[in-house]
Amino acid sequence: MKVDIIAGARPNFMKIAPIISAIRERQKKGSHLSFRLVHTGQHYDRAMSGRFFEELNIPEPDVNLEVGSGTQAEQTGAIMIRYEKLLLDHPSDLCLVVGDVTSTMACSIAAKKLNMKVAHVEGGIRSFDMTMPEEVNRLVTDVLTDYFFTTSEVANQNLLRSGVPPQAIFFVGNTMIDTLLLNQPRFSPPTFWHGLNLQASNFFVVTLHRPSNVDSAEKLTSLLVQITLGADGLPVIFPVHPRTKKTLQGTAMSWPNLHIVEPLGYLEFNYLVSKAKGVITDSGGVTEEATVLGIPCMTLRNSTERPETVTIGTNELLGTDPQVIRPAMLKIMQGRWKQGGVPEKWDGKTAVRIVEILEKLS
User: Fold this and answer.
1) Which of 118, 164, 178, 272 has a beta carbon 3.0–4.6 Å from 18's, enabling a disulfide?
2) Could you tell me where the DSSP H helices lie in the chain?
3) Is 153 helix (H, G, I), strand (E, B) or coil?
4) CATH number attached to the domain at 189-333
5) In what order do the strands lie in the sheet with 2-7?
6) Among 274, 201, 266, CA closest to 239
7) What was the pLDDT predicted at 26?
8) 2-174+346-361 belongs to CATH 3.40.50.2000
C-alpha cells in the first residue's frame, strides 16, 4: 500500500516525523508499506519549515506543491488543485493527514473526491469554537475520514457522538509526544541562553499567534504588560511568530525583562520550555509538550481542543482577559501550581501503533 503523508505547516512536521521513521523500520523487516511525502508549501519560509525537516530527520519531500502565501481560501483552493493533479498523474492508495491546518482539510477533500481513502491522525479533537479556522478544518476533515487515529478518550467520544462507527476509530496516542520524547536528549540551548544569563526555573516562555490575541496592537500590548509584570522581574522569552511581529512593529512595547527573539528551531524551543518556570501560550501543541515535560502552562484562549492537558496535565485555560494573567503567574511564583500527569498512551510509541494498523488495513 502506498501512503501519501501530507505536511503543510510547522505543527505537522513534529507529527509526521515518527510515522515516517516507523514505516522505514517496518520496511527493513519486509513491510509492503511505502510512502510519498507531500509538502504543500503552506509554510514556505525556512524559519518556519526547512529547519524542522533537518532537525527532526525528515526526508526531503517527494513532492512540494509550493502553494505559498495567500488567504485561507486561496491556499485551500491552490492545495486542492495541485494535489488533485498529483493524484491524477500519480495515484496513491491512502491519504494520511495530520492535525488541523489548511493543508489537512484541502488534501482530504481532493483525495475523497477521487474516491481515495483518508486517514486522519489526531481525528476527533474539538474546541467547539467555530471562530477558530482549525475547528472548521477538523470538522470537514473528519466528515471525509475513513480511519481515525486518536489521541484521547475524549476524541473517541466526540467521534462516536457524531456517528462514526467504532471500528473506524483507533486510539493510538499522540505522535507529537513521540517526537518530543525521542528528541529530548538532543534539546539544546538557544544562542542567547548565556547572553541573557538564563537559569533553569527562573524565566517564562511566551508564544502568541492567534488573531484574537495578536492582530490588535492594543490587545497584544495589554497581554504583554500583564505577563511582564506577573514575571516580577524574571526574564520573559518571546519567540515571535511572523504574524505577531507585524503587530509589534507598530507599538512602543519595551520592558527590561521582555526579550523578543526570532522563531526558534524545535530543539532550541523545547529546551526553553523544559527549563522554564512556566509557559504562557495560545498554541494547542505547546500545551501538550508542556504537559509531558511537567511545566506549568497557561493558555490564553477561551476554549481548547486538548482538554486532557487541563484535566490531566499541567495546563490551565485562562481565557483572553489580560487581568487573569498575573494571579495565575503568582500561583506559579508561589509554588502553588498543580503537578499534573501524562495522558494515556502519550508514551512515545504512537507511530508504531499507527503503522501496525496501516499494515492490517492494507
Assistant:
1) 178
2) 10-28, 50-55, 72-89, 102-113, 133-144, 153-161, 175-183, 211-214, 217-230, 242-248, 266-275, 284-293, 308-311, 325-333, 350-361
3) helix
4) 3.40.50.2000
5) 63-64, 34-39, 2-7, 94-98, 117-121, 147-150, 169-171
6) 266
7) 97
8) yes
Query: 3-class DSSP state for residue 183?
Result: helix
pLDDT tens for 264-313 read 999 999 999 999 999 999 999 999 999 999 999 999 999 999 999 999 99
Is 241 considered catalytic here? no
Sign of the dihedral defined by the CA atoms of residues 191, 289, 239, 13, in that order: positive
> In which residue ranges of the chain is CATH 3.40.50.2000 found?
2-174+346-361, 189-333
What span, in angstroms and rounded, lies between the C-alpha atoms of 114 and 108? 10
Inter-residue contact 20 to 58 (CB < 8 Å): yes
* Burial (CB count <10 Å: 0-12, 13-18, 19+), residue 78: buried
Pairing between strand 117-121 and 236-239? Answer: unpaired
Distance CA 251, CA 241 (A): 16
One-letter amino acid for residue 65 of the chain:
L
**Amino acid (one-letter) located at 223:** L
Alpha-carbon Rg for the chain in angstroms: 20
Side chain identity at residue 94, one-letter code: L
Q: Is the pTM of this model over 0.70?
A: yes
* Dist. CA 242–CA 209, nearest whole Å: 8
| CB 126 within 8 Å of CB 143 | no
**What DSSP letter does each residue of 293-315 carry, written as one string?**
HT--EEE-SS--S-THHHHTSSE
Residues ≥6 apart with Cβ < 8 Å to 84: 110, 113, 114
Amino acid letter, 71: T
CA angle 289, 208, 16 (to 5 degrees): 40
pLDDT tens for each residue of 39-53: 999 876 655 556 778
**163: its cell numbers:** 456517528
CB contact at 8 A, 148 and 125: no
